[in-house]
Design a protein that fits this description.
The structure is a single chain. This protein is an alpha+beta fold and 116 residues long. It has three helices and four strands.
Length: 116
């Protein structure tokens, strides 16, 4: 997934910094979707769109109804997980959001398409 996403963003002419942020956020969101899914039963899709104002809209669809913890506080330093969404929130223009669907959920992240 990383290679395909990177190649598509390069073709779109995005700067390397933007590509790195998008790939990192996509990787984190995809990892969360995989953790929440049942192997062999659930489907996961990743879509990236340009918005009208030049930002990147990253959507990760999965069939698990499980939602992320809304507090998203950074975990204690001894914890082995829980840093992905807070990190994504820092890299994105606004906090990552999840929306329930009839057959699962979509996790949405908005990243600046160009950095100054």
């Amino acid at each position: 997934m990383r290679g395909e996403l990177r190649a598509g963003l390069l073709l779109a002419g995005l700067p390397e910094e933007t590509i790195e942020r998008c790939v990192l956020v996509a990787d984190e969101l995809l990892a969360n979707a995989i953790k929440a899914s049942r192997p062999g039963e659930d489907e996961i899709d990743v879509l990236v769109h340009h918005t009208a104002d030049g930002d990147l809209l990253l959507e990760v669809y999965d069939t698990s109804p499980d939602q992320a913890d809304e507090t998203r506080a950074m975990p204690h330093r001894d914890e082995e997980s829980g840093r992905g969404l807070p990190l994504c929130d820092l890299l994105c223009k606004s906090p990552v959001e999840q929306f329930p669907l009839d057959d699962g959920k979509v996790t949405v992240a908005v990243l600046a398409g160009r950095t100054n």
